[in-house]
Amino acid sequence: MALTKEEIAARYGTALFDYAQDMNALDKVHADLGELREAVSANPKILSVFSDPVFNSAEKKKSLSIIEAGFTEEVQTFLNLLLDYNHFLQLVDIIDCFNELYNDNKKIMTGTAVTAVELDDERLKALGQSYAKKYDLTSVNLKNEVNKSIIGGVILKVGDCVIDGSVKNKLKKIRAQLISKN
User: Fold this and answer.
1) How far apart are CA 46 and CA 42, in angstroms?
2) What is the pLDDT of residues 65-104, one digit of tens each?
3) Phi and psi for 4 in degrees, rounded to 5?
4) pLDDT for the residue numbered 106
5) Which residue in 151, 145, 148 sits closest to 111, CA to CA?
6) pLDDT tens figures, 144-179
7) Would you say residue 18 has pLDDT above 90?
8) Predicted structure pTM score
9) Read out DSSP for the chain?
10) How far apart are CA 13 and CA 38, in angstroms?
11) Are 147 and 116 in contact (CB under 8 A)?
């Protein structure tokens, strides 16, 4: 029975995470994978080259050796493993799985701050630091989403947690209290 794309990503991402942790290279591997993901996002067709049957194994290995130069030994070994088992098309999903495990391990979370007006980077960073401190996290990386309908305030979405501090929500609560008293 063939593995699904998600199963491949989970197995390989977990294996790479465990391997990097065992080799005390977790941060270096994370940094290399960040560069690799950025490069692949900019040039997605590069993945298909390593899965294309038109190119023979020697040509693929030669091309890979050029790409992997400068990466840690752990990442080089991993990329060659993906090539040998023909799972290069799942590289981005594998990196994403690795990043989830890395973030969990380092107590790093990502989330969204929904506001009526766009927040500058400084305010977004301060909001993330405040949340991280309150919930005993290393850091929280927030992206900003603008939604004028919330009138003001912030709706913070981090993981499964949603903190609704919007003016719209506060007005809704006040209205509900007024109705319940009548």
Assistant:
1) 9
2) 998 999 999 999 999 999 999 999 999 999 999 999 999 9
3) -80, 165
4) 96
5) 145
6) 999 999 999 999 999 889 999 998 988 888 888 888
7) yes
8) 0.79
9) -PPPHHHHHHHHHHHHHHHHHHTT-HHHHHHHHHHHHHHHHH-THHHHHTT-TTS-HHHHHHHHHHHHTTS-HHHHHHHHHHHHTT-GGGHHHHHHHHHHHHHHHHTEEEEEEEESSPPPHHHHHHHHHHHHHHTT-SEEEEEEEE-GGG-SEEEEEETTEEEEEEHHHHHHHHHHHHHHH-
10) 17
11) yes
Contact criterion met (CB below 8 Å) for 50 and 88: yes
Measured over all CA atoms, what is the biggest interatomic distance in the chain, rounded to whole angstroms? Answer: 80
Structure tokens at 118: 């766009």
- What is the token pair recorded at 79? 């990329």
Structure tokens at 61: 């290995």
